[in-house]
Amino acid sequence: MKTNELIASCQNEWDGYIKHRFVVELGRGTLPKEVFRHYLEQDYLFLIQFARAYALAVYKSDNFVEMRKPLAALHSLINHETRLHVEYCNAWGLTEAEMMSIPEATGTVAYTRLVLDAGQSGSLTDLYTALAPCAVGYGHIGRWLAESPETVWEGNPYREWIETYSGEEYQSGVIDSIAQLDGLLAEISDNSLNAGRIRKVFRSATCMEIAFWEQGYDAMK
Amino acid sequence: MKTNELIASCQNEWDGYIKHRFVVELGRGTLPKEVFRHYLEQDYLFLIQFARAYALAVYKSDNFVEMRKPLAALHSLINHETRLHVEYCNAWGLTEAEMMSIPEATGTVAYTRLVLDAGQSGSLTDLYTALAPCAVGYGHIGRWLAESPETVWEGNPYREWIETYSGEEYQSGVIDSIAQLDGLLAEISDNSLNAGRIRKVFRSATCMEIAFWEQGYDAMK
Amino acid sequence: MKTNELIASCQNEWDGYIKHRFVVELGRGTLPKEVFRHYLEQDYLFLIQFARAYALAVYKSDNFVEMRKPLAALHSLINHETRLHVEYCNAWGLTEAEMMSIPEATGTVAYTRLVLDAGQSGSLTDLYTALAPCAVGYGHIGRWLAESPETVWEGNPYREWIETYSGEEYQSGVIDSIAQLDGLLAEISDNSLNAGRIRKVFRSATCMEIAFWEQGYDAMK
Amino acid sequence: MKTNELIASCQNEWDGYIKHRFVVELGRGTLPKEVFRHYLEQDYLFLIQFARAYALAVYKSDNFVEMRKPLAALHSLINHETRLHVEYCNAWGLTEAEMMSIPEATGTVAYTRLVLDAGQSGSLTDLYTALAPCAVGYGHIGRWLAESPETVWEGNPYREWIETYSGEEYQSGVIDSIAQLDGLLAEISDNSLNAGRIRKVFRSATCMEIAFWEQGYDAMK
Asked: Which of C70, C159, D101, D216 could form a disulfide with C57 if both were Cys (CB 3.0 to 4.6 A apart)?
């Protein structure tokens, strides 16, 4: 089993996530600012739960060698990505104190707690599988936007976002994530019960990412 | 701290859940059948996760005396409630095999995994607090519908549902649930950090119940 | 991978456990009564943690079909085995209230918490692997004692114990346990990383069973 | 409830741990080298599980502020303490590769898995309570040795060990650990059920530390 096969096993859902109107409108620069702001707020709350998921991966490790990868991810998430995110949010008029007190929306709860529950109830492979729609998907989204002829660069208020996720640094992290998940998936035979469970986790996690895109629009109604 | 104070601490969300249009329309008999069928399907998937939550409560117990309550709940959930639910679904044209293969909708994932994560990451009190909007809320809903002058009994296709949750057997189970949660909450001082966390869990779980009502309507769009 | 191969992968430790002097002396009827009494007390505390482990297996299940087996085990453990154990202990002059207040000895903590941690941090297969030295091993011990020419039946104060574990009912339960674990192990290739981890869990759990036998003698010093 | 009261609630066990013959002989420089070497090997395996426990504390945190403390502890454990420990072991002729392949002894399994299970099944307070016999106890041991007239400094092969744990850096970390645990314990009333459980966890963890000291002597027999 490989990451690409996981994606192929739910290609419709995957495309629905990668090419969601949120992404398309972000590329064109037409995404309503309220929707983006809602996304920024929820993404902050999302990062808290993601840090917890990487901590769970450290807990699920057998030795210091195994721990090093999720620990590096955790460290970078807390000291790098979250700081960048908070700075970026400040530029959109959102303070960290405000974001801490905002309630988590349904899609945020759904995706993050699915990841944490898959991780607690399953193996390390279940945990990384549930994380993949985020860890791998944002790379696909960045690349798709960068390559799309419809993407507007000049004057696009979301240009920085697109540049971050299509940029070399992020893309190289995605290659690492895929390599790591491929290593874990190599242990699973295609027709096994484990394979069935892993595919279900991946599809469900992808659907929850769609719900995460959707919720900013719902909030505007 | 008491269950009633938890409810009062998020009265708006609680009312939004108990008196949701799903409930109102169910009482009047005007709820679209597709919405109800969607609810029945998701409720089956919900019960699986609820059984897991009670199993978690058994795991979190220190001795046989403590285990007995969640074990009885687990037993009754699997051998009684689920069977009744499956029979009831059959009457609505849904088989168990079908329901097992339906994907979980966002609201189902959100509420159930929030409960499981609150239970894993917190104490037994966090777990039962997250379960309360369901365990206690359905009792409030049943009673509210039974007492409401707007409730239609004659020819209401949802009459059996209303009778189940307003019935003596269910209501007496709710009293037990409240007593048990009150016992756990008695250990928590009103102004403590734990109290803050518990209130947040309860409010968030209540909001996810609203999302659970809402999702049948979303699916119809 | 199969249960038998797990045993073969640590045959020395396994034999050290199955043919421990505790077992040998129990078969000959020469085991010091204080050692046996200590074992009975600790075994009661052990059963509490074992019930928690089966509850964890229910929690780790994906659907009602998977839940049924560990739930039946949990039910039988609490309502049947524990009751028998308490009755049996009464005959040796130990009450349940007394046993509840005795501190867990090191071997009891070591084996039971290893099982629970293997179960929480790994997959369902890790959990059942850690349980196997108990679930499968007591069957081997019972059979070994029943077949050994050194076993004394007449006047052996431990005859009932030997009869229980060599008896048809217990032996048939062991066959079920092996079949179930074999089903889970079939998913694991012999040379995989998972296989390495599973063998380590099994060997470590077997060593903790040895510590469990040993602790009664230590307490007498 | 306070850390000091926890200690007072099992003063005999605490003294049995702090003033164990392992500690006394270490202070006098008479501890058999084989016993100390066994301790060093097991302490390496212990640190792996301790890192997992701090990762669990990060997972159990609600927000970035709460995460920071256990994350700093985790970071320092992996990048500082473990490195120092490995260097120190090298000086005693032990390589990291060797230590990774040594099986965990019973006392190591018992203490570490008790901590992890208390943390998984209970709250963050249960987790830190179970960690305290190590986090706080080594500080008491270091101070007791430094103040004891029986401690031999000149030519003591364990002088570096004593200096580490009685040193200012370690002692100031202990003060922080106590302050943090006191903060969590402040939420628990003395006569509550939670208080009873917390005391039991602390006493049991202290007894497992005694088993950890003892196991080097057992291995020599």
From this structure: C70
Q: What ipTM goes with this model?
A: 0.96
Query: What pLDDT score was predicted for residue C145?
Result: 98
What is the number of CB-based contacts under 8 A between chain B and chain C? 53
Per-residue pLDDT reduced to its tens digit, D163-195: 999 999 999 999 999 999 999 999 999 999 999
- Cβ distance C63 to B63 under 8 Å? no
Backbone Cα Rg of chain A: 17
> d(Cα B58, Cα C56) in Å, to the nearest integer?
8
Rg of the Cα atoms in chain B: 17
Q: Evaluate whether C102 touches C45 at the Cβ level (below 8 Å).
A: yes
Cβ–Cβ < 8 Å for D206, D133: yes
Q: C212 near C41, Cβ under 8 Å?
A: no
CB A108 within 8 A of CB A215: yes
Please report which residue ranges of chain B form alpha helices under DSSP H: 3-8, 11-18, 21-28, 33-59, 64-76, 82-91, 96-101, 106-121, 124-135, 137-147, 159-166, 168-185, 193-220
**Region of A123 on the Ramachandran plot (φ > 0 left; ψ -120 to 50 alpha; else beta):** beta
Tokens of B102: 């339906």
Q: Say how many CB pairs under 8 Å bridge A and D.
A: 52
Q: Could you give the CA distance from residue B180 to residue B185 in angstroms, rounded to a whole number?
A: 9
The low-confidence residues of chain A, meaning pLDDT below 50, are: none
DSSP per-residue letters across A23-39 = HHHHHHT-S-HHHHHHH
Pair of tokens at residue A78: 């807390």
* Nearest-by-CA chain A residue for D77: A64
For residue B27 the two structure tokens come to 């009482």
Phi-psi map region of B147: left, alpha, beta (phi>0 left; psi -120 to 50 alpha):
alpha
Max Cα-Cα span within chain D: 50
CA gap D108, C106 in Å, rounded: 10
Q: How far is CA C60 from the centre of its chain?
A: 21
Q: Using 50 as the pLDDT threshold, list the residues of chain D that sit under it.
A: none
Cα-Cα-Cα-Cα dihedral sign, residues B49, D114, D193, C51: positive
Long-range own/partner contacts, residues A60-68 (CB < 8 A, 24 or more apart): A60/A119, A60/A123, A60/A124, A60/A127, A60/C121, A60/C122, A61/A124, A61/D52, A62/C197, A62/D48, A63/D48, A63/D100, A64/D48, A64/D51, A64/D78, A64/D82, A67/D51, A67/D55, A67/D78, A68/D78
Q: Which two tokens stand for residue C16?
A: 């050290």
Q: And the tokens for C194? A: 């998972």
- Does the distance separating the beta carbons of C62 and B51 come in below 8 Å? no
Q: Do D207 and C106 count as a contact with CB atoms less than 8 A apart?
A: yes
CA neighbours closer than 13 Å in the CB half-sphere of residue B96: 12
Write down the H helix ranges in D136-167.
137-147, 159-166
Instruction: Say how many C-beta atoms besides its own lie within 10 A of residue C41's C-beta.
Output: 22
Half-sphere exposure of A173 (CA within 13 A, CB side): 21
> Which residues in chain C are closer than 8 Å to B64, comparing Cβ atoms?
48, 51, 78, 82
With bands split at pLDDT 50, 70 and 90, how would you rate the model's confidence at B80? confident
**What is the number of alpha carbons within 13 Å of residue C215 lying toward its C-beta?**
27
Please answer whether residues B123 and D123 qualify as being in contact, where contact means their C-beta atoms are separated by less than 8 angstroms: yes
**Domains contained in chain C, CATH given:** 3-220 (1.20.910.10)
Largest CA distance in chain A: 50
Report how far residue A170's alpha carbon sits from residue A47's, in angstroms, rounded to the nearest whole number: 16
Of A116, A121, A204, the CB nearest to B103: A204
Residue C61: strand, helix, or coil: coil
Buried b (16+ CB within 10 A) or exposed e, B23-45: bbbbbebebeeebbbbbbbbbbb
As a three-state string, the secondary structure of C66-115 is HHHHHHHHHHHHHHHHHHHHHHHHHHCCCCHHHHHHCCCCHHHHHHHHHH
